[in-house]
Amino acid sequence: MAHDPAIGIHDLSFATTELVLPHTVLAAHNGTDIGKYHRGIGQRSMSVPAADEDIVTMGATAAAPVVARHGTDGIRTVILATESSVDQAKSAGVYVHSLLGLPSATRVVELKQACYGGTAALQFAIGLVRRDPAQRVLVVASDISKYELDSPGEATQGAAAVAMLVGADPALVRIEEPSGVFTADVMDFWRPNYRDTALVDGQESIGAYLLAVEGSWKDYTERGGRTLDEFAAFCYHQPFTRMAHKAHRHLLNHCGYDVDEDRITRDLALTTAYNNVIGNSYTASVYLALAALLDQADDLTGRAIGFLSYGSGSVAEFFAGGVVPGYREHLRTKAHREAIDRRRPVGHARYRELHGHSFPADGGDHRTPAETTGPYRLAALRGHQRVYESLQ
Ligand code: HMG
């Protein structure tokens, strides 16, 4: 009888923005004690998109090195997950497909369920590869997190894209069965179509996240999943990095463990390094946690990693990944550090100006200032159409 191949993440690459706002600057302007940002929510800086960057330019920038390394052969599907979509009809993935020069024999689609969308994309990709193990699926999770200026959420903004090549016999992480899933109809965080910024009930959202951790873990264990002690580390969705600590403490408590800070630090410490300086990247966040873990851990060969993906509204999934022997040869640690270090600090006044930036809905010709030094830019909106440029 044919043996089912292992399926999972074959390559992973991320991109973030041209600009960065340190929390020290935000705190100096709004009078907040910096301890609240650095220790209370666990954030040090946030990525800020330049006027000519968006989820498409970030998504293409993240995916270009993946396509450069593996070629386009075998990629028959692109799934772009986002909750900061640029169009109600056309998938942002089609622009990414075009910027990357992928073959026309590709299906492209956009997925949405708040921050959970990236995991939905990964799981759907696994299903497609299970059907045809010769194909590879390019998953792109790209988001810009935007709250009202001067609101409690402002300090948790950020932006990034993660690109993952999903296939059989993956080089990095095999995604295991079972998954534990959970859905509850709650209004903890949402963004009606007429709004550019999210609406959120902060404390309600933390409670909804914790409930979803419990619910997805319950389903995971009922379906015969691993025990907590089998995991080398846990990658949580990190709207702010202290949320991973809250969630993990909650899970350990729920499972009857004596919870001490050392255990939480041991299980999470390496997963927060990128989110801590990038901010909330919604669909990409849990995979930035994975990138940070793989890039920094000594050796995780053969070890299991727990993933908790949460999307407000709410949907969550707990699942496990097994780290593949030889994975370290395929990491992009240097490029990841460069993506973070290349960001230019943005002044507070320019940050506020960019926050309010949007195209008028008049269908005219609106050019964007050339700000990004990345490989792709959003050059203009012309006749209601977004015009992208490749700068390579
Ligand atoms: P807030 O209400 O202004 O802050 O905003 P706070 O008063 O709760 O303080 C935060 C923490 O800082 C507290 O620690 C304080 O004690 C501490 P905790 O009690 O939580 O452990 N603190 C200090 N620590 C050290 N020195 C000090 C100091 N002062 C205070 N001087 C809130 C916090 C998270 C509510 C806000 O940032 C917010 O609304 N964020 C957006 C919503 C969010 O991120 N929710 C998370 C769960 S929902 C989710 O993850 C989904 C999401 O990603 C969206 C999606 O799925 O698409 C958001």
Tally of contiguous helical segments: 12
Order of helices and strands: EEHHEHEHEHEEEEEEHEHHHHEEHEHEEE
Mean pLDDT: 97
CATH architecture: 3-Layer(aba) Sandwich
How many separate structural domains?
A: 1
CATH class: Alpha Beta
Helix content class: 25-40%
Major sheet = 10 strands, mixed
InterPro entries: HMG_CoA_synt_C_dom, HMG_CoA_synth_N, HMG_CoA_synthase_prok, Thiolase-like
Binding site for (3S)-3-hydroxy-3-methylglutaryl-CoA: 33, 147, 246, 280
Keywords: Acyltransferase, Transferase
Family: Belongs to the thiolase-like superfamily. HMG-CoA synthase family.
Can you describe this structure?
- With 392 residues, the protein is α+β, with helices and mostly antiparallel strands.
- Helix content is 34%, strand content 26%.
- The protein has one domain (7-390): Peroxisomal Thiolase, Chain A, domain 1 (3-Layer(aba) Sandwich), CATH 3.40.47.
- The chain has helices spanning 23-30, 34-41, 55-70, 92-100, 117-131, 202-222, 241-254, 261-268, 275-278, 285-296, 333-341, 348-355, and strands spanning 7-15, 19-22, 45-48, 75-81, 107-111, 136-145, 158-168, 173-175, 180-183, 189-190, 199-200, 231-236, 304-311, 315-323, 344-345, 365-367, 376-382, 385-390.
- Strands 1, 4, 5, 6, 7, 8, 9, 12, 13 and 14 form a ten-stranded mixed beta sheet that branches. A three-stranded mixed beta sheet has the order 3-2-15. A three-stranded antiparallel beta sheet has the order 16-17-18, with helices on one face.
- α3 crosses α4 (92-100) and α6 packs across α7 (241-254).
- The longest helix is centred in the middle third of the chain and has 21 residues, at 202-222.
- It is globular and about 60 Å long.
- The model has no long low-confidence stretch (mean pLDDT 97).
- 3-hydroxy-3-methylglutaryl-coenzyme A is lined by residues 33, 35-36, 39-41, 83, 114-115, 152-153, 155-156, 188-189, 200, 202-203, 205-206, 209, 237, 239-240, 243, 280, 282, 310-312.
